[in-house]
């Protein structure tokens, strides 16, 4: 099998668009698609300072690698969640990835910051729920306190389609109204962008292998049995039968997103009495979940 554009041996068979590409032409295709996504959705400006939340996995590492290659001013943040061996391995991979990319890496360790790791906190909330609150708070406050203009995450097409599909199944319209490749910044909320928004998980894996990025392959122990994994399997089966299902679904959602935005009825935000970050009550979700009475400092010294 030969590449569509040259006589080299094919590295990957793309299902949509249907074509064979060698390693070099696939890398070119992937990076061009990221650049086009950034331009199409007006995600980033050339002079912006970008924080990339890097987990040790493939998606965030690829995001950092491509943005660095495209000439953006990036730094990386790894949040060590304190989940035993899994977090130790994740941090080690994040360090190796940033060395290869040539990007500055900042590390925040949840156990050192808050006195307990994810999975150890006594709360009625499901572990994944308060983990999400914790990560979002830390990377947003870190970006805000240290002068970053944007936060880039590694969410890919499969992540986005499964999340939207899940929320449509349950008619969680509040969540649907906020989804998309760009979440504009406002006040103490820093702009969030998803440069891999139109690239599949399979394409991300092949790109990571093509450029030599090693990444952790184990899933978080607390993610086992997550419904999003089941939805991904359903959507993969649909994509297998009809290539292009995922990208057409996401483009259709973006065309109709305004229908869900109309239903958003958010109460005006105040300031958390503990940390001063945005909150709907006296305390923000983060300070409330962790029972904090003093703000955590995340400014780089």
Automatic annotation (TrEMBL):
Zn(2+) 1 binds at residues 3, 6, 22, 25. Keywords: 4Fe-4S, ATP-binding, Iron, Iron-sulfur, Magnesium, Metal-binding, Nucleotide-binding, Transferase, Zinc. It holds the Pfam family TtuA_LIM_N. The keyword Isomerase does not apply. PROSITE patterns: RHODANESE_3. Its cofactor is Mg(2+); [4Fe-4S] cluster. Residues 14-95 form the Rhodanese domain. InterPro entries: Ncs6/Tuc1/Ctu1, Rhodanese-like_dom, Rossmann-like_a/b/a_fold, TilS/TtcA_N, tRNA_thiolation_TtcA_Ctu1, TtuA-like_LIM_N. GO terms for molecular function: 4 iron, 4 sulfur cluster binding; ATP binding; metal ion binding; transferase activity; tRNA binding. It comes from the Archaea. Zn(2+) 2 binds at residues 272, 275, 284, 287. GO terms for cellular component: cytosolic tRNA wobble base thiouridylase complex. NCBIfam families: TIGR00269 family protein. This is CTU1/ATPBD3 family protein. It comes from Palaeococcus pacificus DY20341. The lineage of its organism: Archaea, Methanobacteriati, Methanobacteriota, Thermococci, Thermococcales.
């Amino acid at each position: 099998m030969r590449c569509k554009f040259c006589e080299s041996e094919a590295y990957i068979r793309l299902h949509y668009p249907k074509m064979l590409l060698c390693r070099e032409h696939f890398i070119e295709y992937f990076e061009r698609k990221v650049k086009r996504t950034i331009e199409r959705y007006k995600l980033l400006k050339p002079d912006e300072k970008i924080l990339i939340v890097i987990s040790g996995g493939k998606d965030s590492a690829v995001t950092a690698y491509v943005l660095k290659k495209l000439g953006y001013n990036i730094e990386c943040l790894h949040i060590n969640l304190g989940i035993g061996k899994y977090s130790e391995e994740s941090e080690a991979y994040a360090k190796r990835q940033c060395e290869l990319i040539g990007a500055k890496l900042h590390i925040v360790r949840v156990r050192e910051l808050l006195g307990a790791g994810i999975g150890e906190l006594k709360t009625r909330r499901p572990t994944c729920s308060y983990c999400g609150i914790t990560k979002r708070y830390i990377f947003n406050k870190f970006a805000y306190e240290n002068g970053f203009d944007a936060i880039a995450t590694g969410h890919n097409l499969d992540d986005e389609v499964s999340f939207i599909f899940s929320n449509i199944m349950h008619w969680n319209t509040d969540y649907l109204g906020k989804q998309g490749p760009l979440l504009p910044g406002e006040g103490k909320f820093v702009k969030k962008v998803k440069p891999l928004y139109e690239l599949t998980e399979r394409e991300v894996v092949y790109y990571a292998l093509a450029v030599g990025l090693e990444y952790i392959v184990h899933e978080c122990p607390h993610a086992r049995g997550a419904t999003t994994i089941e939805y991904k399997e359903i959507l993969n089966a649909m994509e297998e039968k009809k290539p292009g299902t995922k990208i057409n679904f996401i483009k259709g959602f973006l065309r109709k997103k305004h229908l869900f935005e109309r239903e958003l009825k958010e109460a005006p935000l105040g300031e958390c009495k503990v940390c001063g970050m945005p909150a709907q009550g006296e305390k923000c979700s983060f300070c409330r979940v962790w029972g904090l009475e003093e703000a955590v400092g995340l400014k780089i010294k």
